[in-house]
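okkk here we go again. third time trying to get the LH6CIYWY bound version out, last two times i messed up the smiles copy paste (missing a bracket lol). double checked this time i swear
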Amino acid sequence: MLGLDVCEFGGQFLELLWLTVCYRGIMADKEGTAPVHEEEDETDLNYQAPAQKTLQEIQELDKDDESLNKYKQTLLGTGPVVLDPSIPNVQVTRLTLMCVQAPGPITMDLTGDLEALKKQNFTMKEGVDYRVKIHFKVNREIVSGLKYVHLTYRKGLRDQLSLALVLDMNLDQLSLALVLDTNLDQLSLALVLDTNLDQLSLALVLDTNLDQLSLALVLDTNLDQLSLALVLDTNLDQLSLALVLDTNLDQLSLALVLDTNLDQLSLALVLDTNLDQLSLALVLDTNLDQLSLALVLDMNLDQLSLALVLDTNLLAEFSSSLYLTPDPVSQGFEQAVNPSLLDKAVYMVGSYGPRVEEHEFITPVEEAPKGLIVRGIYHIKSYFTDDDKTDHLSWEWNLQIKKDWDSTESCISRLGVLSLFSASCRHGRPYALSHVAFNDRHLSTSSKIKVDLDNSNGIAVMKFDNPPVNSMSLDFLTEFSINLEKLELDKSCRGVILTSAQPRIFSAGLDIMDMYGTSPEHCGAFWKAVQDMWLKLYGYSKITIAAINGASPAGGCLMALCCDYRIMADDPRYSIGLNETQLGIVAPFWFKDTLLNTVGHRTTELSLQMGIMYHAHEALKIGLVDQLVPEGKVLSTAVETLGTWLAVPGHAREISKSMMRKPTVDKLLANKEADIKNFVSFITKDSIQKSLGMYLAALKKKKA
Ligand SMILES: CC/C=C\C/C=C\C/C=C\CC/C=C/CC(=O)SCCNC(=O)CCNC(=O)[C@H](O)C(C)(C)COP(=O)(O)OP(=O)(O)OC[C@H]1O[C@@H](n2cnc3c(N)ncnc32)[C@H](O)[C@@H]1OP(=O)(O)O
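finally!!
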């Protein structure tokens, strides 16, 4: 692709590696506020950064080497894209929590009011896998050693709540000791009651942590002797216990009710003895957001009454000073000031050059914490920094771990939308996607596309089901891109097969009705959805195979061309090709590039000018498809083929794919807006609308 032989390429690759090492030393932008201080966990190896070079200096290196220059362009961009020095070199624009199971996108806009973010809670279901994606722009100079740092605090958490109450009375002796100790990991309650009005003793020990609940109750009375001991141990998936004890040797009553499930622990203890009257009632209720304890004691041997009510909101914001300080990054802050720092994560983002489009960085998969105790609000401080500790952006936000997601609607409206799909939302189109359940085998029942992921082999089959001809409308394209994105994030999915649920038609291409007689705004939104579909599919990291089981004109052909491998039904009725000129329209440059990259220059020239639709055998001959099989075997062959592709080491295949396709993808990325404008002005022209109208009429006439 680069016109290099293997040795030459190897040599240049080494050279680039060397350059990359040099770039690490390149001075990062000095703008921004106070430098971010982080505790340096790494051992200082006395590393001396190489002499710093500017972007221009690097671009000057070996500038006569055309191949190297092309490669440098891909790596570093073409040069400064924003000259205005008042605009920061690095601009962090948004953070997305990517989670396959989420009912909607979870995105925070970092270009707006960061103060408002501090008050917002982003909800995540406990136990789900997620990744963090950060979009950022580099405007002028290469920035090296970018890092994303993520400090997580338990919001408003008290490390410990302890209460000890000891009561001692010697009007014929009553002693009570109550010890309550709770922190996030543990709740312990010990209650000892002792009265020697002819002897009554009660000991209650309750101990619960995430995995285990233990309860021991010992009751002893020797008013003609009654003893009770109860020990209970459960692993917290639901426990209920009720104990009622009644002895009428001068009357003793005891009722104990204990109820606990994952969300709630309730304990009620009522004790009643009328040997000159003793009453005790203890109510304990904790659901981890809240701990309530009420103890009422009543004695009338010369009268003693005690009532204790304790109510504490374990997760409330006690005081902002507990976790917010004027200088959150000052030395030792995490340990000294904030005892509830739970986690510090540092992600190496890398070195980036300026370019028009945003860069994106995605963290490895993490698992959200799970369980009764960990549910609640976490306060997160995020820093986007670099080797020089320049503070490109720091912001704070809250993540609320809940037993379940918030409803889809609130999730989407509260948190904003994922950029990829923003066009359809901006234009007021709701997602056509129903809730996607990624569990087990069955994946989604969205209205126009059926997705079936087989967890045994990691192969997902996406079946287009948009009758009559699987035309790609705005809704279809949006749904397609969402499904594709979800599968890309789903680590159990290893490859995707595209095929049709409609007989004889793979896809009739773009929906002409979205381009004919619609407003310029609609055309713009539609074209953006076409671009996003192409960008996602052509640049897809996982393996894609088109199982072409029917006719595949224009956009249908484009979709198949985006895949890594094409298997077509061996049937003379089916044809495939970019036939745009037959409609009086022109395939844009990225359609052209996709075909060109597959079948070569001359065939593309013929194909595009003439708008040729190739029958299956011709398509195989020119390399437009890779294999023909009987129609009944198209899908099974695709599954088999995907299996052989999966045998190739994934990272090597992925890098190779990216190496082949990235320049083509980058070309559209750099011209997205202009391409939309161009399309809108072209498609809304009277002459083009007339051509489309005639084409539609011809389709209907053919049918008649
Ligand atoms: C200077 C300029 C430089 C650059 C330009 C800038 C930008 C680029 C500008 C424009 C580029 C736009 C790119 C467009 C790409 C496309 O994909 S355009 C769509 C092309 N598609 C076709 O040509 C396919 C047409 N359809 C067929 O050939 C047949 O329908 C097909 C073989 C698929 C199936 O045949 P059959 O089973 O016999 O079904 P019918 O023909 O009877 O069709 C059933 C109904 O479906 C309607 N229909 C068919 N295709 C489409 C479609 N693509 N969109 C909307 N509707 C479609 C058809 O009219 C029938 O409707 P009816 O039942 O009669 O109401």
